[in-house]
Specification:
The protein is mainly α. It is about 80% helix and about 10% strand. Helix 1 (about 1-105) crosses helix 2 (about 130-145). The longest helix is centred in the middle third of the chain and has 102 residues, at about 1-105.
Length: about 150
């Protein structure tokens, strides 16, 4: 019986050793598979990070391009508005000059060797000391007429 018991114990030990060996093999396979999955996940994560960085750089480039285009458009609008304002201002100045010229009918002629200016049918001698005052008054009057 001792031999039988020893044989049973021997078989049990062998079976236990086989179970432990298979468990270790399975554990090694599980660890290897986990390491592969972990490496794959790290690689995929790294690729995703790189993609995200590239997309961020691309978005920043697009934003800069849009900003540059907006600045160019704004500059063009300002330049156009400036040209239109200058044109309108020039036209307004020409119209005002024409009105003033019509309001002040000025003629020059020589009378007895002296240069004489006729403003609105009033004769002014260029040698007259009151000439500045007379011209200023005529201009003020013409401006008043234009404003009305």
């Amino acid at each position: 019986m001792t031999e039988e018991a020893a044989e049973i114990v021997g078989r049990a030990r062998a079976e236990a050793a086989e179970i432990v060996r298979r468990a270790r093999d399975e554990a090694a396979e599980i660890v290897t598979a986990a390491e592969r999955r972990s490496a794959t996940t790290v690689h995929e994560s790294s690729e995703a990070t790189d993609r995200a960085r590239r997309e961020l750089v691309h978005a920043q480039e697009r934003a800069l391009a849009m900003r540059s285009e907006a600045q160019q458009t704004a500059d063009a609008i300002v330049a156009s508005a400036t040209r239109r304002a200058r044109t309108a201002s020039d036209q307004l100045l020409r119209d005002t000059q024409r009105r003033l010229a019509r309001a002040i009918d000025v003629r020059t002629r020589e009378d007895a060797g002296r240069l004489v200016i006729e403003i609105d049918n009033a004769m002014v001698d260029l040698d007259d000391p009151k000439l500045d005052e007379l011209v200023s008054a005529a201009v003020r009057e013409a401006v008043r007429e234009v404003r009305q």
